[in-house]
Design goal:
- The chain has four helices and six strands; from the N terminus they run αββαβββααβ.
- It has a single domain, classed as Beta Polymerase, domain 2.
- It is globular.
- α1 runs antiparallel to α2.
Length: 122
């Protein structure tokens, strides 16, 4: 039996897709990490795109009553981290994503399938 992905994670991933973020992956790290349950990792094309995706994810989740406990990286623009305690959203430029290699660092995590709508923004 497959467990359903938590709704806030679905909303965050949909926001990434709506803003044309690419190569997203969701990792369930509950069995290998004590700081959070899930990592959402995605890419933006350039620093401005990365920042826009981060802003949109935060805006979308705020409508659901969620505010990040911590935001990081927005001034640099090449990466943004939004910490919602039970999950973290990491958005990078492709170069920085390769550099930090979070998927490799947390390879014991389980990849989670998240349904998304590739149509128009809501």
């Amino acid at each position: 039996m497959t467990k359903r992905t938590p709704l806030p994670i679905q909303h965050a991933v949909q926001a990434i897709v709506d803003k044309k973020g690419e190569n997203f992956i969701v990792l369930d790290v509950r069995d290998v990490c004590t700081m959070t349950d899930y990592f959402i990792i995605a890419e933006g094309h350039v620093p401005r795109h990365v920042s826009a995706i981060g802003d949109y994810v935060a805006e979308r989740l705020k409508k659901e009553g969620l505010v990040p406990l911590h935001r990081e990286g927005e001034t640099q623009g090449e990466w943004v981290v939004l910490d919602y305690m039970s999950f973290m959203v990491h958005i990078f430029t492709p170069e920085l994503r390769d550099y930090y290699a979070l998927e490799e660092l947390w390879k014991e995590g389980k990849i989670v399938s998240v349904p998304v709508n590739y149509g128009k923004e809501e």
